[in-house]
Amino acid sequence: MKKLAIVVSHPIQYYAPWFKLLAERQNIKLKVFYTWSQAAEDVEDKTFGKTIKWDIPLLEGYDYEFVENSSKDPGTHHKNGIICPELIAKVSAWHPDAILVFGWYLKSHFKVMKHFKGKIPVWFRGDSTLLDEISGVKTILRRFYLTWVYKHIDKAFYVGAENKRYFKAHGVKEYQLVFAPHAIDNSRFADSEIIQYEIQALEWRKELGFSEDDIVILFAGKFEAKKQPDFLLKAFQKANKDREIPLKFVLVGHGPLENKLKDLAENDRNITVLPFQNQSKMPILYRLGDVICLPSKGPGETWGLAVNEAMASRRPVIVSSKVGCASDLVRENVNGFVFDYNNHLALEKILTGLNKHELQILGNKAKQDIKAWNFETIVGAIEREIQNNI
């Protein structure tokens, strides 16, 4: 049986489930090498400003090892946050037939790419885009540098159209590109007669003072500048001035903009701010809203997996043009809306025109559309590459 080593920083709720699926199918043998050993317990999130411990299992069903990280400032927020002197030796001792690396910018990850290139196939997964690129000398120099970086890989598993465009701009050839879409555990967000997330969400809405007829806009994520929750809040307040029946707005999360958001929302009875909610609560949380909005301006909103989660929860989405998944997932007036990231009038127009019945139709379509973006497609792509090309 062919063996695949995966090098990734720490357990992530969007990756661990398909690692488990890959192991369960038993078409290849898998081992994951986690390089942020300090994250074996809890992850300190620099933006949330708190320690995060997910309440869903992320280390079940597959073989893994935490490799000691000797960085004095451990984490993924800078290149020297991952320094694992024993990583190459540990991967070599396992004798993989191929290696899949997440994130070239981390010091030890790039060392792995350079060391194994030409010895065994080196695969890469990342979700960068060109959406935030600004013309200039720095961009030209970065283009040359990244072209050199990607000479150290044999295959790139791209997540969507914008990510593919990024890889091709940096010298990765068409034959090196394999589609393995960004996905979430769609089944975990699905409603059923047993789970009944919709009923639980309806009860929560009542507790918050919302009626069944209220149109609730939901923002769930980090309260940080790139995600523009303050931009959305101001657009919401302006849109409400033009509506006979006001919209409701729920913001959920933590982050550096929290105090500013609470100040802006003060004395506005149509706005509710809730604290960070853990993973097990998310399928209910998305159903608090009638539509979910991700108004990011970047840099760095390379995909926006909250959009996948919202759509899997049967909710339409409003996203900005800077959100990486927009061109792949969002179909205008079919399952959601896209607006120019800095055009507050365009966002206000969308909010002003929201209709409860139409949102339900768009939500049903969103639920259907997101089914094609699943873990099985990712796992199938990896299996085909290792079975057919190695």
Secondary structure topology:
Layout: E1 3-8, H1 16-25, E2 29-34, E3 43-45, E4 50-52, E5 63-66, H2 87-94, E6 98-102, H3 107-116, E7 122-125, H4 137-149, E8 155-158, H5 161-169, E9 177-179, H6 197-207, E10 216-220, H7 229-240, E11 248-252, H8 258-265, E12 271-274, H9 282-286, E13 291-294, H10 305-312, E14 317-320, H11 326-329, E15 336-339, H12 344-352, H13 356-369, H14 375-388
Parallel strand pairs: 1-2, 1-6, 2-5, 6-7, 7-8, 8-9, 10-11, 10-13, 11-12, 13-14, 14-15
Antiparallel strand pairs: 3-4
Helix pairs in contact: 1-14, 7-8, 7-12
* Order of helix and strand elements from N to C terminus: EHEEEEHEHEHEHEHEHEHEHEHEHEHHH
What top-tier CATH class of the largest domain fits best?
Alpha Beta
Low-pLDDT parts are none
Order of strands, widest sheet = 5-2-1-6-7-8-9
Overall number of structural domains = 2
Give a short account of the largest sheet. 7 strands, parallel
